[in-house]
Amino acid sequence: MNRFTLPVLLALGLIALVGFGVALAHEDGDVLKVTTVAKSTKQWDGAPLPAYPEGQPEITILRIIIPAGERTALHTHSVINAGVLLKGELVVHTEEGKTLKIKEGDSLIELVDKPHWGQNDGKVDAEILVFYAGVEGKGITHLLDEHDEQKSGEPKAESGSYLYDTSGLPYDNSLAPPIGSPLSRQTLSGPSPFFLFCRGRGL
């Protein structure tokens, strides 16, 4: 190696490193973008969020698909949770008559310990990603027996309505009634990858 070789190699190496750094900065500038989707101390109906439960924290993330024209069972959540609608549209109803309509890209901070249901009146499946801040070993979603006609004006669940998972197959009966059994009060304990919804007339 002569006296010119080492400086040339060092210069080339420096140029390469600088170029690599510029390329990374350029790529980071194109890719990295942070948007606050939701941040609040209140549930979507305006009520303040409750305190976090005691115990070992456990995060559950569910991808829920509600087919066009279908609705979820009447249910409550015992923990704070929030979701982002990835596709379609959805209307959330409470027994008191409050409603929240969301469309693709919208977020919501769900109700805690308040009966409600989601209804897809659109022509495409509604797909929502929901994050639950729960406690290990505790349920996150509790299905209720029926809708209250006097409060909601909605029809009650019929005994012939059954539970399915998001793929449309009978749900694991360790967490829900076997297919063919009437809908009854159940508790969904995370971290199941499925969310139960009811199919059938009146649901």
Automatic annotation (TrEMBL):
Residues 64-132 form the Cupin type-2 domain. This is Cupin domain protein. Residues 144-157 have a biased composition (Basic and acidic residues). Residues 144-163 are annotated as: Disordered.
